[in-house]
Design goal:
By secondary structure, the chain is mainly β. It contains 3 helices and 21 strands.
Length: about 325
């Protein structure tokens, strides 16, 4: 199979999803043609991000399709007489048909086939043979729909040395002593996601702006994200709904130049373990989710220097 940059993303996701149950067979379906990957499906339920379709595959009966090859987006060496029908519901007998019997061992699950976020739906599949009438038991798999991940709070801590002009979003300090940094606190929600899947990444861009004596912009800002911000890294996720970004010590641009740093979450940079996995399986480009437009600013002011005292001499 092809090996591209997001191969390690998918492998990381699969390793983290061990919590979902005992692992079953490896299916080498190339569900993400742009990147290519192997999927080890869990025997327990699948968590899927709302609004994103995906595929469910079933392993063919080894008697009738002994040489089945799951490599590629569609498996090969399937017996021409094998048929698979799919239903949803509490059981096979009373379920609603979502795909009539066909010589395909998969179903393309569209968003319309899924329930609203925080709900589950059971998919049933039954393999038959077109030349015989015997019918075995159906296999089921539960799919739980999870809401899109979102940032519910984004604010600066305003630690020691900083004065809060607007709590959480605007801070200032005098440039006395050593340069100091702070911490940005980010709270994330992903309704329906199990705790074991609460792992995320996001981006924060940073601009450095010189100010004049009245704290108005003086010239164009500089992008200093590399030094003070962070980039979303889907291959490396951090666990927990409460996240943070440590801001390194912030210096003045020059000794006598008031300086402002603006921290902004990068647009559409929020990724979660489930949403990454959902998109890879959906045969779509991996894209992040929206973040708040809130900015957090830190302004450093040169310490005023008191000059000499003047007076009019008596002999003037």
């Amino acid at each position: 199979m092809r090996t591209k940059n997001l191969l390690k993303v998918a492998l990381t996701m699969m390793a983290l999803f061990v919590f979902m149950g005992v692992q079953a067979q490896t299916i080498n379906h190339d569900n993400d043609p742009a990147h290519g990957t192997n999927y080890v499906e869990a025997a327990a339920n699948t968590y899927q991000t709302v609004g994103i379709g995906f595929r469910l595959y079933v392993w063919p009966d080894v008697v009738y399709s002994p040489n089945y090859d799951g490599t590629g987006n569609v498996g090969t060496n399937i017996n021409a007489n094998s048929r698979w029908a799919w239903r949803t519901g509490a059981d096979w007998a009373t379920g609603d048909e979502v795909k009539a019997a066909a010589n395909e061992n998969f179903i393309a699950v569209t968003p319309a086939m899924l329930p609203a976020a925080n709900n589950s739906r059971t998919f049933w599949v039954l393999e038959t043979h077109s030349l015989i009438s015997c019918e075995g038991a159906a296999t089921s798999h539960e799919v739980t729909v999870v809401d899109e991940p979102n940032v519910t709070a984004y604010a600066g801590a305003g630690g020691a040395g900083w004065t809060a002009i607007t709590p959480g979003t605007e801070f200032r300090r005098c440039a006395t002593g050593a340069d100091i940094g702070d911490q940005l606190n980010i709270t994330i929600a992903e309704a329906g996601a199990p705790a074991a899947a609460n792992s995320y990444t996001f981006g924060i861009t940073v601009e450095q702006q010189a100010l004049d004596a009245n704290l108005n912009p003086d010239g164009a800002p500089s992008d200093v994200t590399a030094a003070f911000g962070t980039s979303a890294t889907p291959a490396v996720l951090t666990a927990g709904l409460n996240q943070s970004h440590i801001i390194p010590a912030l210096p003045l641009i020059a000794a006598n130049t008031p300086t402002r740093y603006t921290f902004t979450m990068t647009a559409n940079s929020l990724y979660s373990m489930i949403s990454i996995r959902s998109q890879l399986r959906a045969n779509v480009a991996t894209a992040g989710f929206a973040v708040p437009a809130t900015t957090v600013t830190y302004t450093i002011l040169p310490t005023p220097s008191t000059g000499p005292i003047y007076h009019i001499p008596n002999a003037f």
